[in-house]
Write a structure and sequence with these properties.
Elements lengths: L7 H7 L3 H27 L3 H17 L3 H15 L6 H15 L3
Length: 106
């Protein structure tokens, strides 16, 4: 089962600064769908190096959203891609879908 995203890290960073918290959330909500779309475009077009690069970028969102195990999965998947493999692709896609659903609620 995929762990659930949360805003604990964002809340910790923001403290009592609600404006900063909201700006951070807005950035996540704006950037994530674009990065997810870019990822799928690279996968579809078999651009392995570009896929690894966007996975590298996305993994930081996992960390920000408190998804430590998913972050580790992304690290492993990035290395797999650089070795010409994609065994973690389906699990990675599950994480992306989980995050996409979550950001609709925040």
């Amino acid at each position: 089962m995929i762990e659930q995203p949360n805003l604990n890290y964002v809340d910790e960073l923001a403290g009592d600064d609600i404006e900063f918290r909201n700006q951070f959330i807005t950035i996540i909500k704006d950037e994530f769908p674009l990065e997810k779309e870019e990822y799928h475009g690279h996968v579809t077009n078999n651009r392995v190096k570009a896929t690894a690069e966007i996975v590298h970028k996305l993994k930081h969102k996992f960390n920000i959203l408190g998804m430590e195990n998913s972050y580790k999965l992304a690290v492993a998947y990035e290395m797999e891609l650089l070795d010409g493999k994609n065994g973690s692709e389906s699990k990675f896609n599950e994480v992306l879908e989980t995050i996409e659903e979550y950001i609709k609620t925040i």
